[in-house]
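Whiteboard transcription, Tuesday session. T.W. wrote the structure tokens on the left side:
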């Protein structure tokens, strides 16, 4: 068994990892890199959310580090923010205010329970809505809100306050069939 190597927070914040990884209490946690379906859904979601950013009053950002607790940083597939992350300081370019929405897209190697642990971190930091989407089964997405049971979405319509979309009407959806 290989012992986990602890990494100082300052080193994590100053290092660019390819692909980026989460930081949990001094440990680096590898994230599963998306395959084609993951990337294509991420692209379609960002395109749609960007088109409607003014109406939704938030901007979608892919693969952003989000500080969910003092010693815990998660890299969101997509987070929709109300304002830009700080431009200077140790946490420059890192989302430290709760996003309006975090979207996690399952990769083939991901499990729902391990992804739900990430979602619990986002909700605990104050994120009001998280979506969990499986690109291979769009009719089985989930909406998470603080102190609420997860809601299964079978009609493809996801909502998060003023943000809403129909997964089956995303640009390029025909590529997922």
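and on the right, the sequence the group agreed on:
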């Amino acid at each position: 068994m290989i012992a986990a190597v602890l990494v100082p927070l300052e080193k994590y914040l100053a290092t660019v990892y390819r692909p980026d990884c989460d930081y949990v209490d001094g440990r680096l946690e590898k994230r599963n890199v998306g395959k084609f379906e993951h990337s294509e859904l991420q692209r379609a979601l960002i395109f749609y959310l960007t088109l409607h950013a003014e109406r939704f009053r938030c901007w979608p950002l892919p693969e952003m580090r989000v500080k969910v607790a003092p010693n815990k940083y998660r890299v969101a597939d997509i987070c929709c923010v109300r304002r830009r992350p700080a431009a200077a300081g140790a946490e420059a370019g890192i989302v430290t205010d709760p996003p309006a929405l975090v979207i996690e897209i399952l990769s083939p190697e991901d499990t729902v329970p391990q992804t739900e642990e990430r979602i619990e971190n986002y909700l605990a930091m104050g994120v009001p809505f998280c979506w969990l989407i499986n690109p291979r089964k769009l009719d089985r997405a989930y909406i998470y809100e603080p102190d609420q049971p997860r809601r299964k979405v079978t009609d493809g319509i996801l909502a998060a306050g003023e943000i809403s979309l129909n997964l089956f009407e995303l640009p390029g959806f025909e590529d997922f069939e």
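Someone added at the bottom: Helices lie at 9-14, 36-51, 53-56, 112-125.
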